[in-house]
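#struct-pred

JT: dropping the chains for the assembly here, can someone run the whole complex?
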Amino acid sequence: MDIEIPLENKKEESLTDWYNEVIEKAELCDKRYPIKGMNVWYSYGLAIMKNIDALLRKEVEEMGYQEVQFPVLIPKNEFMKEAEHIKGFENYVYWVTHAGKNELDIPLALRPTSETAMYPIFSLWVRSHSDLPLRVYQIAEVFRYETKQTRAFMRVREIHFFEAHTCHTDFEDAEKQVEEDLKIMEKFSKALSIPYLQCKRPEWDKFAGAFYSIGLDAVMPNKKTNQIGSIHHYKDNFSRPYNIKYEDLDGKQKYVHQTTYGMSERLLGAIIGIHGDNRGLVLPPKIAPYQIVIVPVLLKSHKKEIEKRAKELLNRLLELGFRVKLDERDLRPGSKYYYWEIRGVPIRIEIGLKEFMENNITIVRRDTFEKTNVKLKSKNILSIIKDILEDIERNLMKKAEELMKEGIIEVRKKEEIANLDGILRAGWCGKEECGLEIEKLGDFGILGIDVKSKENMNCIICNEKGKV
Amino acid sequence: MDIEIPLENKKEESLTDWYNEVIEKAELCDKRYPIKGMNVWYSYGLAIMKNIDALLRKEVEEMGYQEVQFPVLIPKNEFMKEAEHIKGFENYVYWVTHAGKNELDIPLALRPTSETAMYPIFSLWVRSHSDLPLRVYQIAEVFRYETKQTRAFMRVREIHFFEAHTCHTDFEDAEKQVEEDLKIMEKFSKALSIPYLQCKRPEWDKFAGAFYSIGLDAVMPNKKTNQIGSIHHYKDNFSRPYNIKYEDLDGKQKYVHQTTYGMSERLLGAIIGIHGDNRGLVLPPKIAPYQIVIVPVLLKSHKKEIEKRAKELLNRLLELGFRVKLDERDLRPGSKYYYWEIRGVPIRIEIGLKEFMENNITIVRRDTFEKTNVKLKSKNILSIIKDILEDIERNLMKKAEELMKEGIIEVRKKEEIANLDGILRAGWCGKEECGLEIEKLGDFGILGIDVKSKENMNCIICNEKGKV
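RK: done, full complex below.
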């Protein structure tokens, strides 16, 4: 790959082409695998995704979740136990019907999600109230036979997936879990600098089998939403068919109430789309495979000295706990700048002749390209770099929040809706008839009721009291 | 689970029952999943496996490997390109034939190994000699329809698998890779305290499609081998059907030479079987989820003070970088000892009234149950614990090496073979006819030629010069 060519596509001109080009040039995934929608993770893309996973693991484990891993295959008879769930997934499931030269007695589903793999086992794990709450999660691939146009990280057929599952004594305790999950999302999304809407989905759009669903939607630069996560309250909808019961303090057998919490590689799609610019990726520091790249500008006259200094700096920064790369390749500095800009490394440190002579380094921020000179001997180098990284995180969040705001249009009357482009913020009484009426007003769907907003707005259809 | 009951089975009386009981009571995996040979990883078992993975990642990345991830599914036409490979796997492959309500045009294999997923893409990645060597690995699940009796971690149908794949300019460069892989194994197995045999497999037992295969076999307490890893030289056997070519310095298109390196969750099986004792697991410190468990022995009179001291110690040990658990549950100390012994935690620290009064702690080793008293204020606590952990690693290795030695019987004449039980060390000229003859002498197979041994032994069949 000729790394000196900057991006050919501009984000503001063609978001899709720009998005695909960034993915290719930053080496996130290779889409040439011979199955559509199943892509190969390059090591750089995989490293970012694994950092996202690690961050998520930390957040959920602090809240009492334990990591487990269930098999990929689910026997058809287990898969078919909850009617709504089957209806929601039957068009999307891959089926294994043969093994070796034999036809299997019972076809096996490739998990599209793991309720039906986990719950037969939960019915063995949960015996008494002292086993509750049960909180487990897994990070693994799920499979969905998407028929619509696929897009890397956004709509794929093999999905890198996080799914958390809980069991509780009753409805209220499960409600508390939903609240905790929302708190996890708040902390987690802050580290990614991704703001999001939090909407209780309308009845006709909830997860297959859920009592209710909360969608967590990021707003992309094209003013469309990207569901980066969802939290569901299942009530006892699954515990009944899967027989997950516990003996309560009063000696009675009761069905557990359940919740789930799902996220996927769409998080990465959101990060690319929302933070990226016309020079490529811009990575939030907490998930960047390298937070700092050191580029020595080598002049023949001082090659060895500058190389030596760059190595000393590398070791010092590694010792301070940063993820750092020293780019020693035999390339022009400009090529290296392009290379690491496309890959979104938050900080570049340049050491050239000027820096060498003056005993300092030049720090260049990826988000603003602002330059800072720091004395090499400064004892504050740790706090200076930490501050810059934190400022990058804040700045990305600020810009993403502005983008989200721009994408949302407040509507008071139904006549205003017709030709608007973006996410509409309007009153809705919550009744299905009005909701479906709203959806008919334009080419869009209802995300749901804003869970964060306490505001009341009258329904734009029936004018009765409603929510946002 | 009543945690006060020690193991019911004795290792020396019934290895299989003991092995299954340890897996269940230490909560490594749950075998009650409704598909035979596909088990559920409990969080404790998963944590051990992930520590093994992390150790392996470190070793291979130091040697230039990069992590990637390929899809689980492989189109049948890609799968069927290398004849020997197909023959080796056709009885073991799960086939996806349907998706949603449609029958697929091309059936999709669940990867039993990833040659046929990776190599069509390698043919795109490799263009010129400057792309070589290509060294990638992935850690993911593979699927094999085993018809023999399954056993947790040892023979399962969904296998947690490490596979490394390389491409080289020529045969010799691939040979060097094999040497490097053997070095990785040496370092890695030392951290697990697992010694192993290193045998070039006979022609009829090499990997399907390989030019030659080296098996890495641990010796289990029943004197049977457990193949914990294998390294293969493919020559250009795969690069020809998959068209992986590069332009050499002389401008000519040449096929690459390839190697692979595989390991699996059998490593965990070896660790359980080889190091475990009649109180449960004994974990090598580098992969133990907790290296230290602190058990405060709480007397009513000094409950708060001892609790406080235990917490201070916890924080101090965490700061020093150890993985530590403070067991604050309301249980008798004896129950806690059993609980953590079954789970193989290398070091237990007891703080009771005596320790409290004398301002010290009692350190108990899991492998020897040897006790050491250490002054709480000792500035050497870091080095004392480090030394003990290293000594545990060495001691486990020593015992495992003795076990391996006991399992190997040297045989000079074919008449001696008949009723021997174990691994036989004998001369073999390397000819297939003599090899097959040897296999007929007893109920066993030939592991291959000892790669480490430089000794010459005459063939026990034809008496010609041969190798061990």
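JT: nice. Chain A has a mean pLDDT of 93. The longest helix of chain A spans residues 381-407.
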